[in-house]
């Protein structure tokens, strides 16, 4: 049944990628929860913001956090502090993390190369903690270091306290900041970007499938990372190339993985159309107008009869956590939300 739902989500996203704006614009946008919805479309080469909606509002990044964790890993590889063959030890704290995870026991080791794939394909929380401890000695120290690096990258509205994105009211980012993070990974570490487009991974006799369904349709999307908790909704940072142009699209607060994927596909397609339609390098507000003329206006995410708002127990970024947030209540795409998993 889970496999059938995944196939259906991919087919829906692929159809909406090719559908006319009248079919894909407002419908995709209205499938997001308005209190946590945010979206941006960014030209990866120029940094021009083509579309923005609630782009600078605080949101929970969920497992898109792992892109920053991997940025720190790639930086350590570049400076020689790490090699792909180094072994990472699973500590008791790492082994105790909730799903999604590899489920390795304390004391087990894996290579840095395997650890990277564990994050990009499996979105493994246990391995994210093990990497953080290996690089900084503790999760807390890694949170401080990764926040400082995020600010260096221009992510000035972001704060990180853990390496995986499990619920914490202090850990917030914005759609724009997460787009800048995706851009930074491509720009600074192009040799490692292919990890984010890896569709499958085999480890210890098990096959894992990437949580990003848009990678599976054979289309333009070639990365980057999904994210989901009950507090965040369904998040996705994605990148695609068409006619020599690379765009980055971030959507936060999707109601489901299918609606999120469809909305990302619709925004991405509209972004490429906007780029192709422009005859000169005009200001980004003209691109925003192109989007709005095709149904992505200010009210598109909260129109009448729209999706349900935040779960009452989820809390909001910057506010004190409710017991549900503190206990790590989360859900994984294709897994019962009661299991406390995160992607």
Q: How does the SSE layout of this entry go?
A:
Blueprint: H1 2-18, H2 21-29, E1 38-43, E2 49-53, H3 65-79, E3 87-89, H4 92-95, E4 109-111, H5 112-122, H6 125-136, H7 139-152, H8 175-188, E5 200-203, E6 206-209, E7 221-229, E8 233-242, E9 245-254, H9 257-277, H10 284-293, H11 323-326
Antiparallel strand pairs: 1-2, 1-9, 3-4, 5-6, 7-8, 8-9
Helix pairs in contact: 1-9, 2-9, 3-6, 5-6, 6-7
Written description of the protein model:
It is a single chain. The chain has a single domain, classed as DD-peptidase/beta-lactamase superfamily (Beta-lactamase), CATH 3.40.710.10. Helix 2 packs across helix 9, helix 5 packs across helix 6 and helix 6 crosses helix 7. The two termini are 19 Å apart. It is built from eleven helices and nine strands. It has 343 residues and is an alpha+beta fold. Strands 2-1-9-8-7 form a five-stranded antiparallel β-sheet, sandwiched between helices. A two-stranded antiparallel sheet has the order 3-4. A two-stranded antiparallel ribbon has the order 5-6. The longest helix has 21 residues.
Task: Give a brief outline of the structure.
By secondary structure, the protein is an alpha+beta fold. Helices cover 38% and strands 16% of the residues. The chain has eleven helices and nine strands.
Please give a handful of descriptors for the protein shown.
disordered C terminus, alpha+beta, two-stranded antiparallel ribbon, Beta-lactamase, 11 helices, 9 strands, 343 residues, five-stranded antiparallel sheet, 16% strand, globular, disordered N terminus
